[in-house]
DNA sequence: GGGGGTGCTCACCTTGGGGTGAGTACCGCA
DNA sequence: TGCGGTACTCACCCCAAGGTGAGCACCCCC
């Protein structure tokens, strides 16, 4: 099921990490939260053009179960929820750094388009 | 299409890298080829318990198109094909190292099972 | 002479990841 | 008075990723 923590069994560390990062938007969510520290639901939605609310909720729930993000709910009348990275989320992001660099080089190599997100 | 090189557009380096590594067995194939240097088709199949021949062929083709692996065919009577990493494949694997370490720690944390592959 | 190995291809089917659109309870603003 | 924002849930649908099983052309070994 998509709503319970992933738990292997795994061949090696790579697929244990991939398991947690697989999902169309997860790496982007990690990125967003790293860049901005703390973000509200709607801010994340705006920061990831094309994401559906359903997937955003679902991914955030899974990442919470996997211990990557903190979810903080303020019991105020217009709902307010803040998401941030846990220490595991931060370290995962650090581990993704070298992958990001490799990806950048690949983008250059193949001359792929890049989506630029205008700051809100 | 699954049989043409992936080409974005991308949000950032991470998803450019993820794009190339996404696929149930790709990271494991990378791992196998790194560990053994050069492997024949049937050796890879045996090294990845549970992979179907169809998926193995398909993933290898895609990785070839993405410039990650070399495919070398020997025109001998019982077919012989050898796969190895290109320099891009090697550097991708290096970039995955820190992810692998993170994944190992995660396996420890959650106490997940690990699949051990008996050497052939 | 037939069973197993080699490296595939092809056709078919299932699964689930992800998208779409509606509904909700309450508020502020025009 | 009604529209838009906030953070969701729910029902439904679709397509592609992945699995299954067969076939192939040729060989070696028992």
From TrEMBL, chains A, B:
<keyword id="KW-0238">DNA-binding</keyword>
<keyword id="KW-0805">Transcription regulation</keyword>
<dbReference type="InterPro" id="IPR036390">
    <property type="entry name" value="WH_DNA-bd_sf"/>
</dbReference>
<keyword id="KW-0804">Transcription</keyword>
<dbReference type="InterPro" id="IPR036388">
    <property type="entry name" value="WH-like_DNA-bd_sf"/>
</dbReference>
<dbReference type="InterPro" id="IPR002577">
    <property type="entry name" value="HTH_HxlR"/>
</dbReference>
<dbReference type="GO" id="GO:0003677">
    <property type="term" value="F:DNA binding"/>
</dbReference>
<dbReference type="Pfam" id="PF01638">
    <property type="entry name" value="HxlR"/>
</dbReference>
<feature type="domain" description="HTH hxlR-type">
    <location>
        <begin position="12"/>
        <end position="111"/>
    </location>
</feature>
<protein>
    <submittedName>
        <fullName>Transcriptional regulator</fullName>
    </submittedName>
</protein>
